[in-house]
């Protein structure tokens, strides 16, 4: 399939009408399968964000990295829907050169950019949990400025990386006729750098942090077994590591093929289509995995379920029983002392002519009056 560099083509042509971006029938058929997955993923993400809207228990600072990760999923879905509309409706030649360049750069770079920042978002989440587990510190309240700088670094540095590679001509944007625009690396050093910083390094760092967490939990659990007790904090820490490990394994199996294929192939092929399909399946499963592994989401789902059941079947806002209150409570006389038997009988309205004795906790006898019938 013939391909050409976008900028070179537009600079050395005097045509006022540029090529259209319409997909070929084979490309459109393969992208239609991705479309169905993206529609399902959009519905799942919408339900998830409705839960976040209505349940305040899941709107916490400690969940900011999870939400940042899911927001990148939303941007990936928006990217696909936008490009699907463009490639299926562009039946005429494009006379606007700027629009043509924007579409190609948007399509070629945004997918890899969003997938790259996702892995660093998960690394930041893992490091925060390490500090929480090992050093017992609340990162989200003690290190707010560092968190803000980390967010900005994760989002900005990949942009500068792409700009530098394009300026030194290590990367070129090419359009494949009847298919999509894609990147092509002209320098082996660019591929090596992208593989190291966009794939290998963050994965190895994540594995290293997970191993540190597991080592700490294992050492503390051995100490607890020696003392014949296991604290709730240790159980919670163990659950955090298990949650992240399960999520990370599923994510890595579905996400990594797309990144690897992006670095070593260019244009449309069966391999790129399968990798892209797995990537969008992972996007559709992300809300399920996060909601299933975090107990806060499970509690909010149960709460929402009870609320809708009560609304549908006409019950009250809650099913709790209203317990009667005492009209004559027995109150303390102050200084930690309780009233005497005579005062109790007066508060209950009993006459003072008869008494009955009852044993107390200290084997003492407490005399109370017996009401006259």
UniProtKB/TrEMBL annotation:
<dbReference type="GO" id="GO:0042277">
    <property type="term" value="F:peptide binding"/>
</dbReference>
<keyword id="KW-0297">G-protein coupled receptor</keyword>
<dbReference type="InterPro" id="IPR017452">
    <property type="entry name" value="GPCR_Rhodpsn_7TM"/>
</dbReference>
<keyword id="KW-0675">Receptor</keyword>
<keyword id="KW-0812">Transmembrane</keyword>
<feature type="transmembrane region" description="Helical">
    <location>
        <begin position="66"/>
        <end position="87"/>
    </location>
</feature>
<feature type="transmembrane region" description="Helical">
    <location>
        <begin position="240"/>
        <end position="265"/>
    </location>
</feature>
<keyword id="KW-1133">Transmembrane helix</keyword>
<dbReference type="GO" id="GO:0043005">
    <property type="term" value="C:neuron projection"/>
</dbReference>
<feature type="transmembrane region" description="Helical">
    <location>
        <begin position="188"/>
        <end position="212"/>
    </location>
</feature>
<keyword id="KW-0807">Transducer</keyword>
<keyword id="KW-1003">Cell membrane</keyword>
<protein>
    <recommendedName>
        <fullName>G-protein coupled receptors family 1 profile domain-containing protein</fullName>
    </recommendedName>
</protein>
<feature type="transmembrane region" description="Helical">
    <location>
        <begin position="34"/>
        <end position="54"/>
    </location>
</feature>
<keyword id="KW-0472">Membrane</keyword>
<feature type="transmembrane region" description="Helical">
    <location>
        <begin position="277"/>
        <end position="297"/>
    </location>
</feature>
<dbReference type="GO" id="GO:0004930">
    <property type="term" value="F:G protein-coupled receptor activity"/>
</dbReference>
<dbReference type="GO" id="GO:0005886">
    <property type="term" value="C:plasma membrane"/>
</dbReference>
<feature type="transmembrane region" description="Helical">
    <location>
        <begin position="146"/>
        <end position="168"/>
    </location>
</feature>
<feature type="domain" description="G-protein coupled receptors family 1 profile">
    <location>
        <begin position="44"/>
        <end position="290"/>
    </location>
</feature>
